[in-house]
Amino acid sequence: MKTKLAILSMAGLLATPAMAEIQINGFANLIAGMTLDDDESVYGYDSDFNFDPASVFGLQVRGDVSDKLSATAQLVGRGSEDYDADFEWAYMTYMLNNNVNISAGRMRMPLFKYSASLDIGYSYHWLTPPDSIYGIDFNNIDGIRVDYMNYSGDWEYGAQLTMGRVETDTTISGTPAALELKNVVAVSFEATRDWFSARTLLARGKTSAANADFDTFVG
In this predicted structure, what is the pLDDT of residue 212? Predict the structure, then answer.
């Protein structure tokens, strides 16, 4: 039986300059949903109206260390994790020139079009992002990222090179497991002109996972 799912979403953003060199941004995405069939579950929702599976709030602090160097940290609490707040981002960015930025630390892994703004609901046109694409167990990477941005005529384009490693918790056949991605390399390119936008990504890494049922799986 195909289960029907009803979702209600509210998103908000608050930006407050705390000092001349520090900016504090807050956001909240309150998402409530329920299935329309009894005894069925989809994406953590069941027949009881519930806010917890997808609701999220966050606080981001960004400060300028110098004219070219800045630091960013983001604290996020998720309903699926009992709203326990944790630092998901903590990185520094150096502006090499007007076209190139270099960031190092823990940051969002740029896998998809809206990965960088996944938690902020107003940035995309869906009520919620499609879980079949964005519903992965890892969002952040510890490493380095190089961003290049430029213009050519009416075209705006950019490229990203990301390298690092990922460690996160996941489930394998319903059993909790530790997932690790080593030697991750991801290269993406995006071009935009007026209403048209196209993006491509190539990524690779060495995957290993372990749980109580087996020692280690490597792929």
Answer: 53
